UniProtKB/TrEMBL annotation:
<dbReference type="InterPro" id="IPR039121">
    <property type="entry name" value="NUDT19"/>
</dbReference>
<dbReference type="InterPro" id="IPR000086">
    <property type="entry name" value="NUDIX_hydrolase_dom"/>
</dbReference>
<keyword id="KW-0460">Magnesium</keyword>
<dbReference type="InterPro" id="IPR015797">
    <property type="entry name" value="NUDIX_hydrolase-like_dom_sf"/>
</dbReference>
<feature type="domain" description="Nudix hydrolase">
    <location>
        <begin position="26"/>
        <end position="240"/>
    </location>
</feature>
<protein>
    <submittedName>
        <fullName>NUDIX hydrolase</fullName>
    </submittedName>
</protein>
<keyword id="KW-0479">Metal-binding</keyword>
<keyword id="KW-0464">Manganese</keyword>
<dbReference type="GO" id="GO:0016787">
    <property type="term" value="F:hydrolase activity"/>
</dbReference>
<keyword id="KW-0378">Hydrolase</keyword>
Length: 287
């Protein structure tokens, strides 16, 4: 069985949920973006699992209530204002994203906008430009930092931020990748859609602090190896995403991949008197 033991209070909570004694916490819509950049030329005889891409990852601060200490991709919950119709938009419309992710158009708009907003908040990378064909070349400087902090503190909505700078959200720079729902046993739950995107030319990530205490660019196979050696912590959705990305030799191949988005949700089960969190495998999908 592919799973994780649920000891102590989590095991008790899992039993109570399975028995119908308590209700799970509702899952909040969220978006996560895997930023990609080239890792240089792949050797003629690459080691097993080598890939010509690197991914941007953050280590969540130990003080965080959810996934503390885990290495994750930029992302977070959808803000109600993310679905604002005033956001200037380029690329596939919300209705298309909704069909891809099994959501209504309003939810899909919020997911795409949250993906762009959270990526800027947590990495300084902005998937937007002065026109539908361009992208911002540089997001460094005190004025950009003030706007980023305004978004984090919710003093500024994404629509207000883009309008202020006369920018268009570049939904066409995103690609859908996966859909995971936090298991019922967790006290904080998210209904998360995963996106991938290439680093825009000229932009660069920076250590922006806040929820993360460390950032790094890692090859997918390198991150997996470090996790298997106990050096870093990866949540199951992150581990699976990295495993999938490790099969690609360049960023273009990742972006060109035609993905069938299915919904995965780990679930609690009792095995030989002990509670386990069962991790979905290739054959496990929500109907």
């Amino acid at each position: 069985m592919n799973g994780i033991p649920l000891p102590g209070a989590l095991g008790v909570r899992a039993r109570e949920i399975l028995a119908g004694q308590i209700e799970p916490v509702p899952a909040r819509d969220a978006a996560t973006v895997v930023l990609l950049r080239p890792n240089g030329p792949v050797p003629a005889d690459p080691p097993s699992g080598a890939a010509g891409v690197e991914v941007y990852m953050l280590r969540r601060a130990a003080s965080m209530a959810f996934a503390a200490g885990a290495y994750v991709f930029p992302g977070g919950s959808v803000d109600p204002r993310d679905a604002d119709q005033d956001v200037a938009w380029a690329g596939p419309p919300p209705e298309i994203w909704g069909r891809v992710f099994g959501a209504d158009a309003t939810t899909a708009r919020g997911l795409v906008c949250a993906a762009v907003r959270e990526t800027f908040e947590e990495s300084g990378v902005l998937l937007a430009g002065p026109s539908p064909e361009t992208v911002v070349a540089d997001t460094t400087g005190d004025d950009w930092e003030a706007d980023r902090e305004g978004l984090i503190e919710r003093r500024l909505s994404l629509a207000e931020f883009l309008h202020k700078r006369a920018l268009v959200l570049r939904a066409d720079l995103l690609r859908p990748w996966a859909h995971w729902i936090t298991p019922d046993v967790e006290h904080k739950r998210f209904d998360t859609r995963f996106f991938v995107a290439a680093m825009p030319p000229g932009q660069r990530t920076r250590d922006v602090g806040g929820e993360a205490d460390e950032v790094a660019w890692l090859r997918p196979a390198q991150a997996i190896e470090r996790a298997e050696n106990g050096e870093i912590l990866l949540m199951p959705p992150t581990f699976r995403t990295l495993t999938e990305l490790s099969q690609y030799d360049d960023v273009g191949a990742v972006l060109a991949c035609e993905r069938e988005i299915v919904t995965f949700k780990p679930h609690a089960a009792e095995v030989d008197g002990e509670m386990w969190l069962v991790i979905p495998d290739e054959d496990y999908r929500l109907p």
